[in-house]
Amino acid sequence: MIDIKELKISSNSKKLVDISFTIKSSTALIGESGSGKSLTLKAILNLLSSSLDLKKEINSNFELNFNTIGFIPQNPFTSLSSMTKIKNQIFCSDEKKEEVFNLLDLPLEILEKYPSQISGGQTQRVVIAIALSRDIKLLLLDEPTTALDLENKTNIINIVKNLKDKLNIKILFVTHDIESIKDICDDIVIIKDGHIVEFGKTQEVLNKPQHEYTKKLFNSSFKNKQFRK
Ligand SMILES: Nc1ncnc2c1ncn2[C@@H]1O[C@H](COP(=O)(O)OP(=O)(O)OP(=O)(O)O)[C@@H](O)[C@H]1O
What we know:
Order of helices and strands: EEEHEEHHEHEEEHH
CATH class: Alpha Beta
Strand content: 25-35%
CATH architecture: 3-Layer(aba) Sandwich
Bound molecules: adenosine-5'-triphosphate
Helix content: 25-40%
Membrane topology: Peripheral membrane protein
Structural class: alpha/beta
Keywords: ATP-binding, Cell inner membrane, Cell membrane, Membrane, Nucleotide-binding, Translocase, Transport
Distance between the termini: 27 Å
Number of helices: 6
CATH topology: Rossmann fold
GO cellular component, one term: plasma membrane
Shape: globular
Radius of gyration: 18 Å
InterPro entries: AAA+_ATPase, ABC_Ni/Peptide_Import, ABC_transporter-like_ATP-bd, P-loop_NTPase
Protein name: ABC transporter ATP-binding protein
CATH superfamily: P-loop containing nucleotide triphosphate hydrolases
């Protein structure tokens, strides 16, 4: 379990984020634009701008650092170097490359290609492969489906679901799109203006949201969609 006991971020004494929550297995952090999701991820990754003030206390049974955390960004297209073959952007043994490519259903021929020669969905899967090529214990996903079309979005959601079942890694999935996490994350945390307004088991919160903000968020996300089980 990763216990974020205290995470406070402020800028010139303006409070931007003040939250605490736990990641037992897979947690979704949901909120509208500007609610503080990216700042939270950056703080966990130790990538917060030095102009911001941070108070952080996280308890976990492993050290949170570059080797133990994998990060999947919103836009995979800027993550890869365009002039370098994909095989030279993954730093692990050939056996490990093969293992993660098989896990992500990526053809091995892609290793010999340049990023411009593969599709958007494949690019996102390569970015996930790079994260999994290290022995990570926590996977952070920052709206990983935003830049993708519906088919690739469904694909990535299925892949992350599969990873969760197959690998012993914890997941923190940040998004404003509830649809993308409902089958992946066991727990859900709703964030508004840097504060948690509601949290609980995903299905329970989806079926019976308590806070007005959560209700509004769900209604706008799920207009005309059948999502509750
Ligand atoms: N470096 C910074 N200095 C000052 N304020 C900042 C800084 N970075 C972000 N903020 C402010 O902190 C708040 C939270 O920003 P954050 O980027 O975490 O939101 P978000 O929920 O990730 O939004 P989005 O979904 O649009 O990415 C916003 O009001 C933003 O303007």
